[in-house]
Amino acid sequence: MSDIKAKAQGLEPSVGPRDVGAMVKDTGNVYESLSIISKRSRQLNTELKYELHQKLEEFAVSSDTIEEINENKEQIEISKFYEKLPNPALIATEEFTKGELAYRLVDKKPRLNRGGGE
Fold first, then answer.
1. Of 61, 82, 85, 110, whose Cβ has the fewest other Cβ atoms within 10 Å?
2. What is the pLDDT of residue 117?
3. What residue segments make up the domains of the chain, in order of their start?
4. What is the mean pLDDT of residues 23-32?
C-alpha cells in the first residue's frame, strides 16, 4: 500500500483538464475508460481506508493519562497526511493515462430484441 502513497504524493491534488483523446485511445470508448478508472478508484479508496483504519486502531486504547495527548497529536498527524493525498479518482486517472492499469474488456454479444412488437 505504500506504493499507492508513493504514486499519490507526486500528483497535484487538484483537478485539472484531461485529454479525452488520450483517455480513449486504448478502449475506443469514453464510457469504458471511465468505467475502468472508476473501478480502480474504488479499489484505491478501499485500500487507503483500510490502511488508515489500521493505523488509527493503534490509538484506540483509551486511557486518562498525559500520554493520551501525545497519541492524539500523532493520530492527528496521520489523519492530516491521508487528507492531503489526492482523491483516489485522480490517482486512478493518472494510472490509466500512463498505461499502468491492467484490464480486460468483455466481448460484447449482440442483443436480441425480445420486445412484444413485431
1. 110
2. 52
3. 2-97
4. 87
